[in-house]
Amino acid sequence: MSEIKPCPFCGREPEAGIQNGCVRCPAHVGWHLAEQWDCRPVEDALREALKDMTTERDRLRAEGQALDARNFHLAGKLSAAEGQREALRAERDRLSGLIRAVRDAEFGDMGSAWAEAMQAVRAEGDAIVAVRREP
Length: 135
Description:
2 domains
């Protein structure tokens, strides 16, 4: 037979030679068979629930660590992408400047005049749209 569990009320070990209960405990309710004494369904259920919760905690902890590693990896990729975006913006600005220089070289003042004319057309179009919206 296995070792008898401690008293569920006071926590003391049963007296030597007594296999059926704690005679020192004020909550002693009489003599018990060892099987009855060791039958603790609430404790057993709590221990099982604690075991399940511990397993779930460990699983969530491992999942969290995996997510942290993935986030770290994605943060590095995001940083690299932002650097590429800035490089592309700089290249766009450089090419826009070259296009303006070529246009100005080919058309001289006409390039600037063309830009001013386009702005005037846009302003006139905005004015027409505004008039049409009025009740």
